[in-house]
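pinning this so it doesn't scroll away 📌
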Amino acid sequence: MDAAAATPVLDLDLSAIDLKFSRLRLMDPRAETRMLASVRRQGQLTPVVVGRGEGGVFLVDGFKRYRALRQLGASQIRAQVLERPVRSLKAAIVQLNGRRGLTSIEESWVLQSLHQDDALTQEQIGVLLGRHKSWVCRRLALVERLCDEAIENLRLGLISAGICRHLLLLPRGNQPRALACVVKHRLSSRETARLVQLLREHPEREHGALLWLPLPILDDRVGPRPRALTGAAATLAQRLCSLQRKTRVATEAVSLTAAAAWGEQTRQRLSVEIQSLDAAITKLRELVCRPTNDVEVF
């Protein structure tokens, strides 16, 4: 049965609603942007769900709609009102979103709050949510294994829940360094999975260099296919993207070496290679930028 079924719908002042449960939900910047555009274009299409419990009126579901309306300067919001104790309102967060509406991390936060703030046992949480105690135990263990830095970045929307799921495969003490690498190089969820795999496959003495510059991952990145280009022009643009990526990787790799200790012969040899590359780029630029009327036609 829907947790919000057969409940009254009222127009409430935005300022009267407590957002204390927002800490149990993730912030997705892209979803927030889409919701803002939708509300700006069509208004609020469906009511949010609030709960009237001990101490006030709490927003239970509809945080993106609430933030969109507030950003657009609205003063009221249409809401369904649940009359329940606070612990039941927390349970409703899970029930209203079904089994696919929340990430596993968000479910873990709700269960952790019920366990720590409301002093419910794992058995009581299972009964409240209609789930087995083993599921509750796994969810609580999930959030406890994630390092504080990852949780903070997750709350701020700087990393995704998918990235956190991959980081959980590492010991908690090793997660902060891996997270720093993910943030520094803007690794995707798939790239984070590859990073974690490499860390688990290689001995710990090699982790420092890999985390500083994950070349096996960066070197496999493919630049976006240029739009409105076809044939030879598209092929050239794709190769330039690849060259740019490799040049960036090579530049970052210099910081890992003792450049100051290079001898004069080494510097000269590298200088020759760089000059050759520069000459090739210059020639390519001249060919591409040459006006059409300068091309000889036979």
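📌 and the second one:
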Amino acid sequence: MMQPVEELLSDSKEMYLVTIARLSEPGQPVPLSHLARELSVTSVSVNEMCRKLQDQGYVVYQPYQGVWLTDSGEKLANNTLRRHRLWEVFLVEKLGFDYSSAHQIACQMEHITTDLMMDKLDHFLEYPKKNPVGEPIPSSDLESRQSSPTPLTKLAVGSRASVFRFDVPESASSFLNDAGIQPGNEITLIGAGKDNLLIQVNQEHVSLSLALARSILINQID
């Protein structure tokens, strides 16, 4: 029998649903290899968990293709994202934490926070629309405000964005990480040439080829 949406899930199941929501793109299943890499687990573990989540009605799982959230799964994922991102706003804006520390603390708080507490925190923060790195916060009725991430090449010169993710070879990934271009970090597009983009991250300028920039997905910060 399908479990009700309101039933509490284990931390690991919540993390799977939230990660699937974060990796989802319109009309496309999330490949299990992407899910395994994001969660730093084995493909066997991903397959086992996705089967369990499908049995509970939270995902649709198709071997060799990927996984989608059902309406129930999306509702639970958005609930967790709301808790997580509201805590990030509170920790950064009210307590002065840097985003990296706030993110780690929010990962713990999201699992022990009630909906009533979230409603009160949302009111206290005056209903923020986005977290400190520009990721949208689902509303109290759990309708997602999340827009699809776009390639860095779509960002206008002078605009800011937070890095969402990138799927690149290991050598390119090492280069991006060393340059501070990591998921959650803020970047600014300084200039655009025929063959490359110039961005600013952590007060440093970094030149990226257009081919590499196309592989970097971002969320624009208003």
